Amino acid sequence: MYRSHTCGELKLADAGKVVTLAGWAARIRTMGGMAFIDIRDRYGITQLAFNEGYDAGILEQASQIGREFVIQVTGKVAERESKNPQIPTGDVEVIVTEFKILNPAKTPPFLIENETDGGDDLRMQYRYLDLRREVVRANMVLRHKMAQEVRRYLSDSDFIEVETPVLIKSTPEGARDFVVPSRLNPGQFYALPQSPQTFKQLLMVSGFDRYFQIVKCFRDEDLRADRQPEFTQIDCEMSFVEREDILHVFEGLTRHLFQKVKGIDLPEVPMMSYADAMQFYGCDKPDLRFDMRFADLNDMAKGKGFGVFDNSEAVIGICAPGAASYTRKQLDELTDFVKRPQIGATGLIYCRVEADGTFKSSVDKFFDQNALSGWAAACGANPGDLILVLAGPLNKVRKQMNELRLEMGTRLGLRDPFNYKPLWVIDFPLLEQDEESGRWHAMHHPFTSPLPEDIHLMQSDPGAVRANAYDLVINGVEVGGGSIRIHNRSLQERMFELLGFTPEQARAQFGFLMDAFEYGAPPHGGIAFGFDRLCSLFGGSETIRDYIAFPKNNAGRDVMIDAPSALDQEQLDELSVSVKQR
Ligand code: ASP
Fold it and tell me: How far is the CA of 481 from the centre of ligand 1 (A)?
């Protein structure tokens, strides 16, 4: 028997027991005729005392070990003189009488402590050591709990988990596919799924009624901070449902997770149309932890002789509560912020609402107190608040104001990561137009159904057609998205046509799905949650990497196993793949 207890469970009530523990030597301190070693395992840390008074040779043995040695000890549990209230085992220590080194260890390249001295790269290279740190492991435990609760809730709601294949054919969901050469079919390739979209729809045709899967998806996207080429979705599909049914079930799942994993009763999830989200927050995933809704100042701002406003398509203001006290320097910082190339505004106009209710703006020359009071009313600004105004082409100003709003939310401390404000965004446009080519793309994916009342616009005004699609947004993060699907062949064919597919291309790529629609496809719809993102949101972190056991770095590499890597010529030949010499 390697151990009688774990390193996380001994309490005062165990005093006097003889126990055996096994784990890693976390901290080693020697002092005079004593030595203390903290022994660590997944469950916690227990203090070991090596005391010459009990066994003359034991100190000598203890002195042979280094950090991260794997050790096994037997001894008596005793009440500690100086207790450590920070840890659950802090009342006791084990007075060691027997001691064994199970495996020595090299000195680790960084401290295996919550506060480590290891940089990102080093920690990723030795991720197995990084995962020994309690904070990192706790993230994995959270992820495990989440997965358990997802399965429990969905299974209790009659969903069945079905595995779909990983070696498939391309599904066009916007990103590039990862591909795998087929040795048995020279010159042909499998694609790794961007999502199991078509399979889950086929399962509905099969009559499975309610499907889910916690599933790896793969997207070969351009590198961006905190994107993973492989990531996990909670993928779901249901038959005989309308949007409201789906929102109900998955609001239920979200609520269940918050309740079980965090002990939080989530407020009811409000709904907002895409159009409103864009108008009032300038983005399709508004952070509702704070207000600062956009106010349209066009009517009030134009025609007063201020050229910047007069020549702009849109003038939009927000109210930053309590920020009238912002100094010149702070305002300059904000101006610099919006003028950064990533944001690209030409300038920032402000108006302070002073404590006495008067106004002080950067454009006092053009706007009198009366005019400024109109701004304040539109923005909902009170004495002590600061109004910030941007002007320019509508879509640009919305984007810029969105950035400024989020920045102000952060600066004013209104974005507490543990204050959760969920939102359904609905009625997305079905299609987006590529500015350069003029081609239409599916905003969600090509299987998304238009709203029935908009179908008649598909030919005449494709850009105006709304999709029966929805996103779940929490704190400005898109955690899930889905739609009611097209389930008849002719509508699906029209959709592909709109997207620029010839009938032959559509048949070659999606014939199997459209054929299936002719064999009794039920009305159906579904959703997928980004599981890594959901975990990071629950953990209060912005980095999904912290919630993935073995993540890739920002260049898409696994620096621990050193992947991707080159193949031998022999292997390449076998796969009929030739590689361009670089
Ligand atoms: N397959 C979609 C996605 O990956 C989700 C869905 O429509 O259910 O975003």
Answer: 6
